[in-house]
Every structure is written in structure tokens, then in C-alpha cells.
Design a protein that fits this description.
The protein is α+β, with helices and mostly antiparallel strands. The protein contains 24 helices and 19 strands. Strands 9, 10, 11, 12, 13, 14, 15, 18 and 19 form a nine-stranded mixed sheet that branches. Strands 1, 2, 5, 6, 7 and 8 form a six-stranded mixed sheet that branches. Strands 3-4 form a two-stranded antiparallel sheet. Strand 1 (66-71) and strand 2 (79-84) form a beta hairpin. Helix 12 crosses helix 16 and helix 21 packs antiparallel against helix 22. The chain is globular and about 105 Å long. It binds adenosine-5'-diphosphate (ADP) and magnesium ion. Residues 192-194, 196, 263, 276-279, 325-327, 335, 446-447, 449 line the site of adenosine-5'-diphosphate.
Length: 699
């Protein structure tokens, strides 16, 4: 029996929340901070001083002794360096102290974080700056302060800064856009995100025995088990006790940190699960997703489990993604992807929808590369995840509405006829059409779901790129339509623009099966880009049109785009290098010796049997078969090593990534095929690493 849980009282108990602030800050200061958080007002030192003091008192009560500026550098994980509140007091004593300055600014030694060569060009050091639009929280004895990380000369060194910039830029553009549709009271538009997080859980004892999982997060060897996911008996299946206990523990931990963990269930692959929180602002949603991933890993260890966040830990079963549900909401409570109830609201919604259609078509390459990584390459297009081709799913009703606009027609349902801009459209029931799970970018009634994002990715990147794209398109529509706003012919003018946009960009809409081979051909006919791998996608970051919008809205300078591209490509090469070297190591130290040993054993058996006049047909066949495989395996090890060495010599960053992709990756695959064949033949107790069955069926 578990204790009765009081969730509302445990919720956000470790967060310096709005409630705590209201309680502990002087009224003026609280109001000021709210304006900073909600309307983007700038922070002044006196306010910071008061807040820091209140924060320290609260954190000490929560048992904290340290504080840390928590930031998201380009490494792919979060970073933190802890300082204690301790300060000398008279008589050799100590007191606990925390200044406004320490809250607002930190100076970690930035030289070891990836900057893509930005810091070579300037001698600037990096500093962290408090982001008051996210929540501070206490965890493991430290006060965590969400921060951005930039250089002294202003270059972006992290993932949060571009996100915050994109949210600000989008708000400005969207407010102006919405005015045309009569929204006089909207002063701020915020993007929202709900990230559904997929993950695997396996027993820690198995993980300990797999160097590949320990070093790379995925299995580099391993024959498919006799049973995979073909029976569809894992999706939404009842939770085994160990998993249920884990999920309960996880929820409580997430709730205490102010994360609205809402949904939990088993996913498609054996040992795969999902956690989805309630959506929030993109900024907070990003911080909370980073925090959630960390908590998931830590809670797992308490249960003797390991949480795998890699996009493709196991071949042959589904990998993990992170469905990025995205929308925009206004300070007067509208969800801008909600079709609304009046003709004007409908028209506004349809215009925003067309802005997205135009944007996703024109910047499909940015969307694609926002989800590109070595890990996600194994997942995208592997008939379980959206293909690497960007398209949009709108559902049949919405498609029919757009068709009516394009053809200057009325929209008809079975019983009624509607004129766009004159009648209110029937509300689109959520999930009215068959949920299309094969689309990378799907409309789901009141939001878009971007399904390409990898499970281990920081969601800041897809979100700031999407925000920037939308920014550009809303701006485009505003330029076109503003002269007509408030006038007689406004609606007709809107319809005219929508019509031409739909005519030009309808190719991006695809409601069919995105996993099919036919779609790949169809997409090629439509001229949609198809970038199967990171090395194909990433160079497009620097395409002129992409740099232009990133620069236009103050997200990145051209140098920063170049630096980002290089960081991603370098990471790609490093990932493959580590994977290849891990394979070589495991092959030489574990797998090949085990196979040779067994062949030796068979040969001894053959010798003994022959001596006493017996035949040893089976042993001979097996010894030959395994012996041949071992020879091929040995060749492959030598070959892979040579290819890695060769790739290491390539100086230029893109060329090196391409070399890893074109020469190292195929050899890794060849080597794996050989080892998986040997594994199938060898006795289980002689193969030195846990099998797939042992890993994915034993929790
Ligand atoms: P499904 O798996 O059926 O797509 P889930 O309930 O697992 O649905 O996840 C849906 C996610 O979408 C949740 O995180 C939810 O909070 C989020 N969401 C709902 N509305 C919005 C919105 N307006 N903006 C962003 N995210 C949203
Ligand atoms: Mg879900």
C-alpha cells in the first residue's frame, strides 16, 4: 500500500514559483518581476538585489547550501558549476550570502565549451546571465538559476539565447499581424510547446555489461530477438510493476520541480515508454524538458534501471523521438491555432495556417536540419518515424477548406455550405480525421506536432528555427495586407493572398502514408528536398535565404550560423569516431576472442572424436562456418580501423563528416552484420555480451 499522495501540495514545492515570489517579495518588486517575466521589461540591479535575498532565504529553508548558474551550451547537455552561499564572518565564522550580482551574472570558464571557432576570432570570455522568464528551483542541495550563455562581445554560445530572441521577435511581428484582424488588446504573443518524451528502460546489470551502451548510448552489436514489436502488444500495454514504480517515482519528482507531468504509457517497442507534460511557454518547456531528461536518468538508477534517451538504442525495433507540439498564444488568452468561432477568427486562423504552409515549404531545409544528428539519422525514414522529407498533414476537413479558398469556392459539409470570411466555419473536432502518425508536421486540431525531433535533442533548436520561419511569414503577410486593414475590401484581399499562397505552396501538404516508398517518389516529383542524413542536411544552414531570415530577426549573425553548422558537423564526426572505436574495442577484446575460443573448442572435440573413430560432421561444419566468419570479422576490424584513421586525417569539417558518413558508417554496418550472424550461431553462454532478448524483455 502506498501512502495517499497530496499532489497539489507536492507540486512545485522545490520551485521559486510565482506563489513563493508573491509571498516573499515586497509588492512593488513582485509586480516589477512579473512585468519582466511576462512583458519582457528589463531587469534593474535594485530589483535583482531584493530577489536574490528572498531567493537565498527560501533556498536555505529548502536545504540548499549552493547555487549554480544552469545553462545549455552546445555540448548537447546542460552545464552547471556550483558555488556555496558561504562567506567569511567576523571571528572566523561563516555566513550565507547571495547578491543580486551573483544572481544576475556568472563567469564560468568558457574555454572548454564548443563555440565553432567563434572565440578564436575574439578574445572574449563567456558569461552566463539570469533568464528571469524561467523558474529557479532547488535540487540536490543547490539553487538552480536558469541562464543564457554568451560571450562578452555578444556571440551566442548556447541554445537558449536564440530561442529567447526568436520568441521576442515573433511576439513583435505577431502583435502587428493580429492588429489587422482587429485584436487591439494583444500586446504579447508567446509560443508554446509540449514535448512528448520517449525513452527506454533496461536493467542496470545488463547495461553494465555493454560497453557500447555505456560509451555511445546505443547497441552497436546485437542480433534481432525472435520476437520484436510485430504483435503490437507493448503499445499502451499494462505497466509491469517495476515500470509502474519507476513512473510513479518519476512523476513525483517532476511534480516537485513544477513540471506538469501528465501522461505516461508503454510505447511501441519492447522496453519503450513515454512521458508527456502539459504544454507551457517554449522557454520554460525547453528548460523543463532538459530537467525532465536528467531526472528520468537519475530516478532510473534508484530502481536498478538505466534510462536510454538515445534515438535508436536497438536495431530492428522503433527508436525514440520527441514529439514537439507547438502553438502560439496571446496575452488575452487566444490559441492562435484554434480556428475560433467567428468568421473573422476563422480568417485569422486560416491566414496563420497559410503562413505556416508557406514557411514550412520555403524553409523545409531548416526544419529538417533542426532535427538532424548522428543518432536521429538511424531513426528518420526507418519506417517507424517520419521520413527525412518535410511535409505537412492537415486532415481532410481543413484540406477541403483550403481547396475551397484556392478554387474561389464555398466550403461544403454534408449538411451546410460556408463562405470563408462570411460564415463561421464548423469547429474542427480535434483528431476529427484519422490521426496521421506518419507525418513529420501534423495539425492536430489546435497545434502542430513536429515529430522529427530526436529523443535526446534539446528542443530549443527546432523551436527557435520554427519561430523564426513563422516570424518571417507573418511579417510577409503583414506587409502585404496592412494597407487594407480596417477597410471594406480587407477580407477579399486576404482571400486573394491566401489563394496565391496555396497555389504556390500546396505541394508541401501531404495527407497520405509518409512511411511508404511511393511517397519518396511522389515528393521527388513535387520537388521537395530529401536530405537523408545529417551531412546532407546541415550545410543548408548557411544557404543565403536561411542566413537572411536568421539575421533579419536578430537570431544569428552569418558567423554564428557558420559556427553552429560546424559544431553540429564536428559533433557528428566525433560521435561516429567514438562509435567506430567502441566497435573495434569490443570486437577485439570481447567478441573475436570468444568466437576463436569456441572454434578451438570445437576443433578439440573433433580431434578427440576422430581419435576414437567417431565422425564429427556437425562440429566440423560449425567450426568451418564460424572460422570463416571470424576471418571476415578480423578483416572488418582492420578495415574499420584504417577508415577511421583516414577520416581523422581529413581537415575540412564538412569533408570530414562526409568521410565518416560515406566510408566509416558502411563498414560499421558490415562488421555488425558479421557479428550478429556469429551471435546467432554461438551458444548463449559463450557470447560475451547480453542479447537483445535479455535486455528488452527482462524488466
Ligand atoms: P498524443 O500522443 O495523442 O499526440 P499527448 O497527450 O501524449 O498526445 O501529448 C500532447 C501534447 O501536446 C501535450 O504535451 C500537450 O500539453 C501538448 N499541447 C496541447 N495543446 C498545446 C498547445 N496549444 N501548444 C503546445 N502544446 C500543446
Ligand atoms: Mg503521446
Amino acid at each position: 500500500m502506498t501512502d495517499k499522495k497530496n499532489v497539489p501540495s507536492m507540486f512545485a514545492q522545490n520551485v521559486f514559483s510565482m506563489e513563493v515570489m508573491k509571498d516573499r517579495l515586497p509588492k512593488d518588486c513582485f509586480k516589477k518581476l512579473m512585468r519582466i517575466m511576462q512583458q519582457g521589461e528589463t531587469l534593474d540591479m535594485p530589483t535583482a538585489e531584493v530577489v536574490a535575498n528572498a531567493m537565498k532565504d527560501w533556498a536555505l529553508e529548502k536545504g540548499a547550501t549552493h547555487y549554480t548558474h544552469w545553462f545549455q551550451p552546445m555540448t548537447g547537455s546542460t552545464a552547471e558549476k556550483h558555488d556555496s552561499f558561504i562567506a567569511p564572518a567576523p571571528g572566523g565564522k561563516a555566513l550565507m550570502e547571495f547578491s543580486g550580482k551573483a544572481l544576475v551574472k556568472g563567469e564560468p570558464d568558457a574555454s572548454s565549451f564548443p563555440s565553432g571557432g567563434l572565440r578564436q576570432t575574439s578574445t572574449a570570455r563567456g558569461y552566463t546571465a539570469w533568464d528571469p522568464t524561467s523558474w529557479c528551483f532547488v535540487k540536490e542541495g543547490s539553487l538552480y538559476i536558469p541562464t543564457v550563455f554568451v560571450s562578452y562581445t555578444g556571440e551566442v554560445l548556447d541554445k537558449k539565447t536564440p530561442l529567447l530572441r526568436s520568441m521576442d521577435a515573433l511576439s513583435k511581428v505577431a502583435v502587428r499581424f493580429l492588429k489587422m484582424f482587429g485584436n487591439e488588446n494583444v500586446s504579447r504573443v508567446t509560443t508554446t510547446v509540449g514535448a512528448e518524451q520517449e525513452y527506454f528502460l533496461i536493467d542496470k546489470k545488463m547495461w553494465d555489461k555493454r560497453e557500447d551502451l555505456i560509451l555511445t548510448g546505443r547497441t552497436l552489436f546485437g542480433a534481432k530477438p525472435p520476437k520484436g514489436q510485430e504483435l503490437d502488444d507493448q503499445y499502451f500495454a499494462n505497466l509491469r510493476p517495476r515500470i509502474a514504480a519507476y513512473m510513479q517515482d518519476l512523476d513525483e519528482e517532476l511534480w516537485s520541480l513544477g513540471i506538469y507531468s501528465k501522461t505516461k504509457h508503454n510505447e511501441v517497442a519492447p522496453a519503450q515508454h513515454e512521458m508527456a507534460p502539459i504544454f507551457t511557454t517554449s522557454n520554460l518547456g525547453t528548460d523543463q524538458n532538459e530537467l525532465a531528461m536528467e531526472v528520468m536518468e537519475k530516478v532510473a538508477l534508484r530502481h536498478g534501471l538505466v534510462c536510454l534517451l538515445h534515438e535508436k538504442p536497438f536495431e530492428g525495433v522503433n527508436g525514440s523521438g520527441k514529439h514537439n507540439n507547438w502553438s502560439m498564444s496571446t496575452n488575452d488568452g487566444q490559441n492562435l491555432l484554434d480556428p475560433g468561432d467567428t468568421p473573422m477568427e476563422n480568417l485569422q486562423f486560416l491566414t496563420i495556417l497559410c503562413a505556416l504552409i508557406k514557411g514550412v515549404d520555403e524553409y523545409a531545409d531548416l526544419m529538417r536540419l533542426s532535427a538532424a544528428s548522428a543518432g536521429n539519422d538511424h531513426r528518420l525514414g526507418a519506417d517507424e518515424a517520419p521520413p527525412a522529407i518535410i511535409s505537412m498533414f492537415l486532415g481532410e476537413e481543413l484540406a477541403a477548406v483550403l481547396k475551397a479558398i484556392e478554387e474561389d469556392d464555398k466550403f461544403r459539409t454534408q449538411t451546410q455550405t460556408f463562405e470563408i470570411g462570411v460564415n463561421a466555419l464548423p469547429s474542427f473536432p480535434k483528431d476529427s480525421t484519422d490521426r496521421n502518425r506518419t507525418s513529420p508536421f501534423a495539425f492536430t486540431g489546435n497545434r502542430f506536432e513536429f515529430r522529427m525531433v530526436g529523443s535526446s535533442d534539446n528542443i530549443a533548436c527546432p523551436n527557435f528555427l520554427l519561430n523564426t520561419i513563422v516570424c518571417e511569414e507573418l511579417d510577409w503577410f503583414t506587409q502585404k495586407l496592412e494597407p487594407f486593414a480596417g477597410q471594406e475590401g480587407f477580407e477579399d484581399e486576404v482571400k486573394k493572398v491566401l489563394k496565391s499562397v496555396l497555389h504556390d505552396h500546396r505541394r508541401i501538404i501531404f495527407n497520405g502514408d509518409g512511411y511508404s516508398e511511393a511517397w519518396v517518389e511522389e515528393a521527388a516529383r513535387r520537388g521537395l528536398p530529401n536530405y537523408p542524413s545529417t551531412v546532407d542536411a546541415m550545410p543548408h544552414y548557411s544557404d543565403a535565404k536561411n542566413v537572411a531570415i536568421l539575421q533579419k530577426f536578430g537570431i544569428f549573425t552569418p558567423e554564428e550560423v557558420k559556427a553552429r553548422t560546424e559544431i553540429h558537423l564536428e559533433k557528428y564526426s566525433k560521435t561516429l569516431r567514438i562509435e567506430a572505436r567502441t566497435m573495434i574495442e569490443m570486437a577485439r577484446k570481447q567478441l573475436l576472442p570468444a568466437v576463436l575460443d569456441y572454434v578451438q573448442n570445437l576443433c578439440n572435440g573433433i580431434a578427440v572424436k576422430t581419435q576414437i573413430g567417431m565422425t564429427a560432421v556437425t562440429e566440423e561444419k560449425m567450426a568451418h562456418q564460424l572460422g570463416d566468419l571470424a576471418d571476415a570479422f578480423y578483416e572488418s576490424i582492420q578495415d574499420l580501423e584504417q577508415r577511421v584513421n583516414h577520416a581523422n586525417e581529413v581537415k575540412e569539417i564538412l569533408a570530414q563528416a562526409q568521410c565518416f558518413h560515406d566510408t566509416v558508417l558502411p563498414e560499421m554496418e558490415r562488421m555488425r552484420t558479421i557479428s550478429d550472424t556469429m551471435e546467432r550461431i554461438m551458444p548463449r553462454d559463450r557470447y560475451p555480451i547480453p542479447t537483445y532478448s535479455e535486455m528488452i524483455y527482462n524488466v
